[in-house]
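Priority: medium. Attachment 1 of 2:
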């Protein structure tokens, strides 16, 4: 599963009004409530790459791809959003988006 597929999966769960973008409120509704990891504000800022106040699928896919590249434990294995780069679900990912997907 690539970053675009992951972004679409996250959107299918988080885009409450179905408009193709995520607001900070929609992101907060699906974000972990355990106060571990980055805040919703930090997640939103990282994914809103064009600073338009919403996250598109493309914004989220780009943010996930950057996270893949930054957190790759090896050249052959990457885990982000609860998935690794082979499409296998990973239950204990340390990624910012691990519980969104």
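Attachment 2 of 2:
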């Amino acid at each position: 599963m690539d970053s675009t597929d992951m972004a679409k999966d996250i959107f299918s769960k988080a885009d409450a009004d179905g408009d193709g973008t995520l607001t900070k409120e929609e992101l907060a509704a699906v974000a972990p409530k355990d106060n571990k990891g980055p805040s919703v504000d930090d997640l939103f800022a990282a994914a809103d790459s064009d600073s338009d106040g919403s996250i598109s699928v493309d914004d989220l896919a780009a943010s996930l791809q950057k996270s893949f590249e930054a957190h790759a434990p090896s050249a052959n294995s990457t885990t982000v959003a609860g998935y690794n780069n082979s499409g296998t679900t990973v239950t204990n990912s340390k990624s910012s988006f691990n519980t969104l997907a």
